[in-house]
Amino acid sequence: MQKKKENINRREFLKRLGTGAVVSSAVLAGCDSRNNPLTGNRMAAGEIPTDKMTYRTNPKNGDKVSLLGYGCMRWPMIPNPNGDGEIIDQDTVNALVDYALAHGVNYFDTAPPYVRGLSETATGIALSRHPRNSYYIATKMSNHHLARQGMSGRVLYDASVAMYRNSMDKLKTDYLDYYLMHNVGGESGMPFLMQRFFDCGLIDFLLKEREAGRIRNLGFSYHGDVKVFDYLLSLHEEIHWDFVQIQLNYVDYRHASGMNFNAEYLYAELEKRNIPAVVMEPLLGSRLASLTDHLNSKLKSHSPEESVASWAFRFSGSFPGVLTVLSGMTYMEHLQDNIRTYSPLRPLSEEEFAMLEETAVEMISYPSVPCNTCDYCMPCPYGINIPAIFSHYNKCINEGHLPASSRSANYVKARRAFLIGYDRSVPRLRQANHCIGCGQCQPHCPQSINIPKELHRIDAFVEQLKQGLEF
Fold first, then answer.
1. What number of helices (H) and strands (E) belong to the chain?
2. CB 214 within 8 A of CB 176
3. What angle do CA 290, 328, 222 make, to 5 degrees?
């Protein structure tokens, strides 16, 4: 059997994987992403220091914040003992939080809808076991879910205030260190922003809560229409934003896709106003944790002792106006690797910045699904595991073993690997073939992915593989 990969040029690659094509680059060998899909090329060996964490000082109030922030969107889950679905593994969450605090991490970011609405409670239980002055809590006004139901005016105001107070109860605190207007810029852009915060008077409530000290820092997290971002910054002299959360990684810096906007512009606008930036999605939904074999080798040859993921964290942390970089660390080994990267941070050189820009340019030539596994599209009313499907598909693309056609020497092996990996990653009742195209997931995606279209495309490809059809 031929072991050497067949080479095809970029034009032919895109032709085969273009919009509407049934064929996909997911015909790859070694695509099993079961259990821990990120472990692959992520880890690097070495000491895990307890006293070398890099800290940034908030210019607004002098908070000394760890450059590594804990994103509480992906707490580990276990089967519910009563047999009804899953629950958060609280013991593991406690252990992760204890380890993070012991190694200098002091910023924890959550939100009411995270982990199916369970994150704030689990985070509050874990953190409340430690002195309140040893950590900073960030959570969010996630009333986009309420406004999406048609709430407006006084009804929306009252429900939003109740959400805010409920967050403090769940987090077991009487003040919030960092509070965000969540996911602004999405949906209809400016009209949706005005409905959520300005027309109902909610912004005035938040400002009064900050004045009273129950909100220590007020900001917003941005996805979507850049007009919303610009409008909110135009109010800075009036509102005095304490921080802003943006998506900043070496792909989105100059090559943002969907409704996202280039972080180069977003960061510059914050920097000129001296507004600290909090970074979300440094790994672009895990896609920067393991790249194609060629790109992995390129980064590893430059720095053999560092994980592939560490390059993305070093990129985000190298901007001096970044207060903290959030990572949703489900596994202890990811927490350890990220602590190692920031203990202390070794900022990128100009040569390394240029190398990552080259990496980004090459990455975007491969048509993976721009899913960040945020789970906002979940739960699907038909039980489809949308993030897991996209994660398996993208991981297989990143392996880089693309057969030129169904007549390739390695086609049989690659076909078998993809299908077995798909069944292991996604139970059959939760696979893409069950999508009826209802579109309920569509408005929730901050990346503006046409989710039903992508699911149907992947399903058509899977069926083609199962039937052993030529392409």
1. 19, 12
2. yes
3. 100
Q: pLDDT (tens digit, 9 = 90+) per residue, 352-383?
A: 999 999 999 988 876 678 787 888 898 999 99
Element holding 176 (H helix, E strand): strand 176-184
Strand partners, 280: 247
Largest CA distance in the chain: 72
User: Which amino acid type is present at position 432?
Assistant: A
The answer to whether 284 touches 252, Cβ cutoff 8 Å, is: yes
26: number of CA atoms within 13 Å, CB side? 33
Give residue 383's region: left, alpha or beta (phi > 0; psi -120 to 50): left
Q: Beta strand 68-71 with 107-109: parallel, antiparallel or unpaired? A: parallel
Rounded to whole angstroms, the Cα distance separating 260 from 281 reads 12
Give the global pTM.
0.78
Q: Report the alpha-carbon distance of residue 410 to residue 432 in Å, rounded.
A: 25
Q: Is 389 helix (H, G, I), strand (E, B) or coil?
A: helix
DSSP state of 188: T
323: phi then psi, degrees, rounded to nearest 5:
-80, -45
The set of residues, in sequence order, having a beta carbon less than 8 Å from that of 93 and lying 6+ positions away, is 75, 76, 122, 123, 125, 126
